[in-house]
Design brief:
Shape of chain A: elongated
Strand order of the largest sheet of chain A: 1-2
Order of helices and strands of chain A: HHEEHEEHHHH
Structural class of chain B: alpha/beta
Number of domains of chain A: 2
Oligomer: heterodimer
Distance between the termini of chain A: 82 Å
Helix content of chain B: 25-40%
Strand content of chain B: 5-15%
Number of helices of chain A: 7
Number of strands of chain A: 4
Number of helices of chain B: 11
Shape of chain B: elongated
Strand order of the largest sheet of chain B: 10-2-11
Structural class of chain A: alpha+beta
Largest interface: A-B, 49 and 61 residues
Strand content of chain A: 5-15%
Largest sheet of chain A: 2 strands, antiparallel
Largest sheet of chain B: 3 strands, mixed
Radius of gyration of chain A: 29 Å
Distance between the termini of chain B: 56 Å
Amino acid sequence: MNRKKDIYILACLFAVTFYSCKHGEGEYHSLHDKIEAESKTYHDTTMTSEAFFNDIKTIEITEGVHTFLIPERKGQIKSYACIECHTESLDKLKSKDMKKAHWDINLVHADKNTMNCATCHNGNDMNNLNTLTGNTVDFNSSYKLCAQCHSSQFEDWKGGAHGKRIGGWVPPRASFTCVNCHNPHSPSFETRWPSRFNTEQIEESHEGLAQ
Amino acid sequence: MSDNKKWYSLDLNFKKKKETSGSCGCGKTSGGCGSHNNEMTDDAFLEAAVNASIGDEVRKDGFDQVFDVKMDRRSAFKKLTASLLIGAGAVSTSCSVVTGDDSKEKAQIDWEEQFKGNYKLMSDKEKKGTVERLMRSYELRTGKNISMTSENAKEDVLFGYAFNISKCQGYMDCVNACIEENNQDRNSQMQYIRIHEMKDGNGFKFDEADDNYYHEVPAEGHFYMGTQCFHCDNPPCVEVCPVQATWREDDGLVVIDYDWCVGCRYCMAACPYDGRRFNWSKPEVPEAEINKNQHYLGNRMRKKGVMEKCTFCVQRSRKGQNPACVEACPTGARIFGNLLDPNSTIRWVLENKKVFRLKEDLGTEPKFWYFMD
């Protein structure tokens, strides 16, 4: 009798565990399992995000394992190429009888001990940028200069956690580069007013409770 | 039954009703209650139909809405009559020999729309049919064209979203873009996205958060985070819907068939994240501001008395474009992509950043993650 009861209990237990492994409609225990399982058979969708770039010209870069597009930069700089004006040495251009240029640039980036114009620009090769060790960097790859100090932001940007994606979520991936959002001479953002009220604020101002 | 009795007792109308002064049985003192005039305009028609389905409920609180329903013969007949009027009106216009071709076509469309099935169960042909009817109906009504699609979920796509709390500065550009993209009611100031301003060092305290700020942002000592529909993989709102007007699509989007929704708001109550919105009044968008690039499940015009919510901009995302909020965010705090693509940026974020979700212990499996730099 006791044995029969034991078997009965065991059978019930087996049935319960057996059925609890299957969740009715969903086949997976968690979203994580689902993503892992279903991405094994992933093949590229036929869509492309190129149509959403509008008139942004892009160039392809490869950094580590990541290959993606960034906006072309040189065509966007109004006074490029620099040597159109920088035909003479800086000392001469700075002299009083010359017309002033770049008067609107005010370097607010780190401090004077860390950075000055020559940290990124080379007076003898104005058409290019230069690294801390004096290597030449093209204006289109200016992110390489930023990455010298901002290494964690660089890692995040390469992966896609920092910065902004252009157009769509489908491949090919195009992301804004550092200088598309940050002014390299004054990279931090200033505070500003929100672009709209929140809902409640508007309700109150309708009722005359708030301004 | 407006005393403090908090249990249900069947009102069989044994007690004489208190007659309200000089009115008919519907309780309204001015204007028509719908059962008197025979000639109705299209708008009055729609109004009557909506009133017949939700009626006075908009002005009562939850308890009264559920239990204080006078179901005497008179009101029951009135509701029946209103629904019959819709059908009869359509039939009479479509069979009449005097009415013009346009109004006949309109009546035909109204008739077919009235008796169409649940979008979830439609074949692709039926989906195309209803979308074409809705576009034609808009053209007949306003003389302007809209483009509406019924694009299905793509294979090998599961949408996911990540939100960088360190980056959000509370600029509200996302909210603006969302309203414009999704044709949300301007009168009631409907917003799918909420941006919460929270104090540094206090953690996530939604009850102490300021959702109503208006000052220069970012404010000293505060951080900002946004919430919207999280498109749960195990959505409680879908479970509770009594008419299956909301469901999860294969690409993970939780969507609503606005024409099948009865406006019971069970889903609103079931959502643990304040993700759903209700149209208490007739949604109004100025003609010039209407986004005419629409999807049946997304930003097409809604009516009074139905639920709506964020759809990750289904009309954009199914074409490969980013949702409007992602595109509008000036800080890059919003990341959107395909969870099934191992090379997508959203996957990199999930695998390399310390991500978390809200109320994870509920098992709702939201596809909306938060992370910090």
